[in-house]
């Protein structure tokens, strides 16, 4: 470990923040988008491509990895970094969110969650302590507390009790995590779309003096303006000296606007999942490569992005590959999308450094709205 | 075009031949294995990986490409080479074999074949002349005559009439192809597993003085010894001054043994198809990465192959990716297999050059038979 975990705020431009998260495995320039490597691979990409695109950190999913290959096995294999061949920082979620969304027969109690694996039906128990233990066995640099996340809309009592349980679990996770040089455990702000609950959750977590703060339970079905309104409630409560991570978000526009509301870190499967289905995010908005207009278009997908997938393959070829359901089509569009997300974040970081984030955001949104280049 | 099509025989070692096929788009060192890029992509690989593995030439499938994106469209797009980004030679089949195996409602007459597309049900007619026209529109460097290929076992009359029809189509294809500097049209020896029919087919094609000779209708269900016996019938009839291509073959052992019987060129989907299903061909024989013995094996798949996929990822990770049905697992094993096939062909070429092919073949087969490294 070369350095302890920490956060340096370089500049603020409105609510937007330009910073660096320091970890024992290297720095993360923020605002940052973290590509998702669910089961230990960013789907369809070589990790060299992920790194070259500009990603400082990737994410692994505790739920998937605890089921396969398994936490103790991963530890015996030397940890996730060695297993997948990534020497930069890795963030893991707690497993809780995917227990809720993917497993069968889940049961939540004060003690933790019980669930059946979607892989083989095996029964698992996961307490807050076990979640932290698993994340430790994986070798995660930035770990998440176990929390309970509810889908929106939800009634007040459901949101309140989930938020309160999450706070009690945050305390237990903090104790379980202890002090690990170079690493961090983040608390997760819950409270659904309720201002009071969000305030209460954020304040209680701040009082625990954690190393970073995640904002969970958003982008779970609510309109974007509700998400941004919740950020306006939560971010002013969070300390400026700690990183803020909006979990599971989102579209390029979600990222741009959330940065404007004070968020530092993001993750989402959208660039790779959309890429596998032929949808590209570009400097000129969304482009659906399945569309027949691309069939004889020899121009590259997006010359504005410095990535081989973006500027060295014709739209006609990408169209053909996607229509033919070929792996290479999914590989190229996933690669382009990851590169575009990193391109966007680099632009955001530069703009904040130069105190012209508002103008950058306006121009970026205008370019998206203007749409794709005219058909040939 | 820098040079005309031709073949230089550098050395013979028994029946095994070390040569170079010259084309307008570059040389092909033989014996050569040609990775299959069915619809314009070697499945799961970047073409840089294919080239770096040592492939001089790849194959495209006329049937697939005429259906999607279509021959005239491909021509408008500048041809297959430009479309996919491969500047070396490309060989195309005639489309006939896959009309038989993939399309519905096929009908064969003296004139040609009529069939319904497996993509959209559209009706197509393909004469020998149209097959050559399509291959020209694709921009193929080594084109195949349209032929009729029968599955084995088959009765004598079926094999005979298919062989005779194929000969008449060879004449028509030769005329349609004409003289194209730097390019070639190969005739295809048919005749099933019948010695007399094979002799008759080979001799008639030799009399047409074509630029190269394919051997079709093998590896279609018959035992390997039948295939090798047919090679022993056909190869001595074929001129030593022309390349010989055994279509759709095969396993590494098929290749090694067929070289010993006088074959120069091969193609097969096996390395990529097997790779997608977790099966690796290695210097120590077949390795099934799905097998639980690899789950905690941190050793690389095959240190004997100079390829990142072979020597820089653990078996445990490959096992995990394949078990998890992840694209990266398919990508890595397809890549390794293509690299292993090229590694094998390079070894074969060196051995023939050094007049020790028999010893090389014996040692290679012995290593395969000895099997994989012991489990940890």
From TrEMBL, chains A, B:
UniProt-listed Enzyme Commission number(s): 2.4.2.29
Reaction(s) this enzyme catalyzes, per UniProt: 7-aminomethyl-7-carbaguanine + guanosine(34) in tRNA = 7-aminomethyl-7-carbaguanosine(34) in tRNA + guanine
tRNA-guanine(15) transglycosylase-like domain location: 14-368
One of the GO biological process terms: tRNA queuosine(34) biosynthetic process
A Pfam family matched in the record: TGT
Binding of substrate, residues: 93-97, 147, 190, 217
Signal peptide bounds: none
Active site: 93 (proton acceptor), 267 (nucleophile)
Family matches, as InterPro entries: ArchSynthase1/Queuine_TRR, TGT, TGT-like_sf, tRNA_ribo_trans-like
Pathway: tRNA modification; tRNA-queuosine biosynthesis
Annotated region described as RNA binding, given as residue ranges: 248-254, 272-276
GO cellular component terms, semicolon-separated: cytosol
Role: Catalyzes the base-exchange of a guanine (G) residue with the queuine precursor 7-aminomethyl-7-deazaguanine (PreQ1) at position 34 (anticodon wobble position) in tRNAs with GU(N) anticodons (tRNA-Asp, -Asn, -His and -Tyr). Catalysis occurs through a double-displacement mechanism. The nucleophile active site attacks the C1' of nucleotide 34 to detach the guanine base from the RNA, forming a covalent enzyme-RNA intermediate. The proton acceptor active site deprotonates the incoming PreQ1, allowing a nucleophilic attack on the C1' of the ribose to form the product.
UniProt-recorded name of the protein: Queuine tRNA-ribosyltransferase
Species of the source: Ahrensia marina
Gene that specifies this protein: tgt
